[in-house]
From TrEMBL:
Species this chain originates from: Hymenobacter sedentarius
Membrane topology, record value: Multi-pass membrane protein
Transmembrane segments: 24-42, 49-68, 80-107, 119-141, 178-199, 211-232, 270-288, 309-332, 352-381, 402-433
Keyword set, alphabetical order: Membrane, Transmembrane, Transmembrane helix
Source taxon at top rank: Bacteria
Domain SLC26A/SulP transporter: 22-406
Keyword Nucleotide-binding: no
One GO BP: transmembrane transport
GO cellular component: membrane
Subcellular location: Membrane
Pfam families cross-referenced by the UniProt entry: Sulfate_transp
Name of protein: SLC26A/SulP transporter domain-containing protein
InterPro entries: SLC26A/SulP_dom, SLC26A/SulP_fam
First-listed, main subcellular location of the protein, grouped into a coarse class: membrane
């Protein structure tokens, strides 16, 4: 007789390189998206150009491994530009900001140790989806001027009001009046190529699935601009609308470019106030971003929020020590990672290595990339975040889901990310409280087995002060002369405020000729509470 087969052991854990075939192309796409954002956010923040790239490198090479998220990408965040710009003015120098960034990182580490990351789990799904859709719309609106080659400041900030006095919509109008023919040509060619690359006919080709459309767009845009330069110089993309990367010839040269913190700033109280602001805002943005990334993750993996705070804290400490900006987990680059087929944190790590390599070896080539081509990449990323199908789905879920969703979108568009999410949370919590209040009790009349004409109001297992208003309104609407059974026998906990309201109703019931019977709620206990 054959021997019984031994039970199989646990499946071996896949190697970190098992999905490199998908992570490497995704990392390249994220790099192409991150490069202009790192440069632009530095400019918008009033910081040295190199600072944003340093932050992106630290986020990719270091934070990707410390974080528990498989798909989020960390780097300089547009939502921090105003804070950083103000902080540099308040503290008096960029070096002092670096000191505040180091302290902010230490605060985040302490928050992670204290398990403060749980706050990220209290954001309603409708608000998270609204944030994603709003970021998609902002990406589209903010990239149009660069797509048209009419904005020398590539990425000023993601707020509605910009530093130059323009707003999101007026900037588009100004761009339409001052467009650059070369940038427009390259931009539309790039967008058409991206749309073509995503069609089923192209994606059925095995080789096309292995080559990211963004890479093809970059190469084609460089070639097209060089062709314009040769045959029609007046239509070539102007130099100010090309990537501008500092040329560094060696690793030692890069080390020589690093800026160190102002150590004296650690002794000034104002530095700690700025650091606390950066820590709170960066932590909230990171928690919001990883929560959103988890919802986009095809495998529905969960990111440990406390570990994320620890990872971001260490990243900010290192970034501040070597001349980088404050960082967060960023949804734009993370979305590009997911949409490009990234599977593990290796893709984020590869994007960090590519940012480093671009500084050392590829500056002369990268400086030939038209910004309108990169804007086309971001336009497609933005559309995928705010697809019409998302709005239809939220509408079908009812007002409790749709209203917080749409309010978050509008608020983020016309303010900024944190304020908009805050407004969305207020609306979302209103519906949560409303639903909670409606579930505090069950009211029936003429129920089977009950006396005819009797109102039977049974309280739920847990009744909090949030249910007080709803219960009072229900009791006040009961008709005069009715018989009422108020049953709390199944309730494990009834809040003091609710008990007071029940006692008040018991006292006035005789005046309304209401025959009230309390079950499981002692009048003595109520009065003595």
């Amino acid at each position: 007789m054959a021997a019984a087969a031994e039970p199989a052991g646990p499946a071996p854990k896949p190697s970190v390189f098992s999905s490199i075939g998908q992570d490497a192309p995704a990392g390249l796409v994220v790099f192409l998206v991150a490069l202009p954002l790192c440069l632009g956010i530095s400019l918008a923040s009033g910081a040295p150009l190199l600072a944003g790239l340093i932050t992106g490198i630290v986020g990719g090479v270091l934070v990707s491994w410390l974080s528990g998220s498989q798909l989020s990408v960390s780097g300089p965040a547009a939502g921090l530009t105003v804070i950083v710009l103000t902080a540099i003015s308040t503290l008096g120098s960029f070096q002092a900001l670096l000191a505040a960034t180091v302290i902010a990182g230490a605060i985040q580490v302490l928050m992670g140790v204290a398990k403060a990351g749980v706050i990220g789990m209290y954001f309603p799904a409708a608000v998270i989806r609204g944030m994603l859709a709003a970021i998609g719309l902002i990406l589209i609106l903010k990239q149009i001027p660069h797509f048209l080659g009419a904005d020398t400041d590539y990425f000023e900030d993601m707020d509605f009001m910009q530093f130059n006095g323009q707003n999101t919509f007026s900037a588009i109008g100004a761009a339409a009046r001052a467009l650059s023919p070369g940038s427009v040509l390259v931009g539309f060619a790039s967008l058409a190529l991206l749309l073509l690359w995503d069609t089923r006919a192209v994606q059925r080709q095995a080789w096309a699935r292995k080559v990211p459309g963004a890479l093809v767009v970059v190469l084609v845009s460089i070639g097209l601009n060089q062709l314009l330069r040769a045959v029609a110089p007046e239509y070539q993309v102007r130099p100010e609308h090309l990537v501008k990367l500092p040329v560094i010839s060696s690793l030692s040269g890069l080390l020589g470019q690093l800026t160190l913190p102002d150590w004296s700033a650690f002794a000034r109280p104002v530095t700690y106030g700025v650091a606390l602001t950066i820590a709170i805002v960066a932590s909230l943005e990171s928690l919001l971003s990883v929560e959103a990334v988890d919802k986009l993750d095809p495998h529905k993996r969960r990111t440990p929020p406390n570990r994320e705070l620890l990872a971001q804290g260490v990243g900010n400490m290192v970034s501040g020590l070597i001349g980088g900006l404050p960082m967060t987990a960023v949804i734009v680059r993370s979305s590009a990672n997911i949409n490009s087929g990234g599977q593990t944190k290796l893709s984020s790590f590869i994007h960090g290595l590519l940012l480093l390599a671009s500084l050392l070896f590829l500056a002369s080539v990268l400086n030939m990339i038209p910004l309108s081509a990169l804007a086309a990449v971001l336009l497609t990323v933005g559309f995928k975040l705010t697809r019409p199908a998302l709005y239809r789905t939220q509408w079908k879920l009812g007002w409790g889901q749709f209203l917080p969703f749409i309010v978050t979108i509008v608020a983020v568009l016309f303010t900024d990310l944190l304020k908009g999410v805050g407004v969305g949370l207020v609306v979302g919590f209103f519906f949560i409280l409303k639903a909670n209040a409606e579930q505090a009790y069950f009211l029936t009349r003429d129920a089977p087995g009950r006396e005819p004409g009797t109102f039977y109001l049974r309280l739920s297992e847990h009744v909090s002060f949030l249910n007080k208003a709803s219960i009072i309104n229900t009791l006040e609407r009961l008709p005069r002369g009715s018989r009422v059974i108020l049953d709390g026998s199944k309730s494990m906990d009834i809040d003091h405020d609710v008990l007071e309201a029940i006692e008040s109703f018991r006292q006035v019931a005789p005046e309304r000729h209401i025959d009230l019977e309390l079950r499981g709620i002692s009048p003595v206990a109520v009065a003595g509470h």
